[in-house]
Design goal:
Blueprint: H1 11-20, H2 32-52, H3 66-74, H4 76-87, H5 91-122, H6 127-137, H7 145-159, H8 170-173, H9 183-208, H10 215-235, H11 241-266
Helix pairs in contact: 1-9, 2-3, 2-4, 2-9, 4-5, 5-7, 5-11, 7-9, 7-11, 9-10
């Protein structure tokens, strides 16, 4: 409305080039090995998840327990943030890591229950089996809408978007766990943040939105989900960490539990 021009679409890549050209400074009071391992752990978890997701019709790597393994790998970025903040030697990092740990306790339970709802219904832990079932019978969103809603709400916390971005609240604790990061190591975390916007929504598309018969359809569904998450992020203020915790326990967890119990009854 004020005729201001925002950054170009390629700004993210410009920032990455600038960060990778700078030196990474490790604080004297920090634990250097853990500071370096934290972003690597995040990237490994997200990349391993990508190869298990059926991007289109078939994944690059397929095995019977891929759902459980994907849930473990998707927890790596959150654990890495806790590691990064607690090992940085910064009070801002310590506060941010404690907030991240508390939020993980709140959202991981409904997140996992929503995903396992499909596993109990199909009696299968294969992501490919879940996708192929939806090709024949339609998206699971129509069968388990409450679990879908719970999972989408959990995405906001996993990606670190409002109203659940307290662990990295820049107006309160600068950058939380990433306050002491710089140069290449910060660039690696920026890559992680970019990958989250694809991998985590893609996981939901695979489970509840029917996957995709081809790569184009799959990416369009992911893009639609990203737009929804961005809209929610824009219109909501930040919750305090205690408010976010109570919200997940009071509203999101019951939604996931209802459909989880329904899946047990239907089987």
């Amino acid at each position: 409305m004020q005729a201001r021009q925002g950054p170009p679409l390629y700004q993210f890549f410009i920032d990455l080039i600038k960060l990778f050209s700078k030196e990474s400074i490790i604080p004297y009071s920090g634990r250097g090995l853990l500071i370096v391992l934290a972003p690597l752990l995040s990237i490994i978890g997200l990349l391993f998840t990508i190869v298990m997701l059926p991007l289109g019709s078939e994944p690059l790597v397929e095995f019977d327990e891929s759902l459980i393994v994907a849930l473990y790998f998707l927890a790596f970025p959150g654990l890495a943030m806790i590691m990064a903040g607690s090992s940085s030697g910064s009070p801002y990092g310590t506060v941010g890591s404690s907030r991240e740990a508390r939020m993980m306790i709140a959202y991981e339970l409904p997140y996992t229950l929503s995903a396992l709802t499909l596993a109990f219904y199909l009696k299968s832990l294969s992501l490919s089996a879940i996708t192929h079932y939806q090709f024949d019978h339609g998206p699971f969103f129509f069968k388990y809408p409450l679990a879908t809603i719970a999972l989408i709400i959990c995405l906001l916390a996993k990606i670190g978007r409002r109203p659940f971005d307290a662990p990295e609240a820049d107006t309160e604790i600068i950058a939380g766990p990433l306050t002491e990061y710089s140069g290449t190591l910060l660039g690696l975390f920026e890559i992680v943040n970019g990958l989250k916007w694809f991998v985590v929504p893609a996981f939901v598309v695979t489970l509840f939105l029917g996957g995709g018969a081809n790569l184009i359809e799959f990416l369009l569904k992911c893009f639609g989900l990203v737009l929804l998450l961005s809209f929610i992020d824009i219109i909501h203020p930040r919750f305090r960490v205690d408010q976010g915790f109570k919200f997940f326990m009071k509203w999101v967890l019951p939604l996931a539990l209802i459909d989880f119990v329904r899946s047990l009854i239907l089987t």
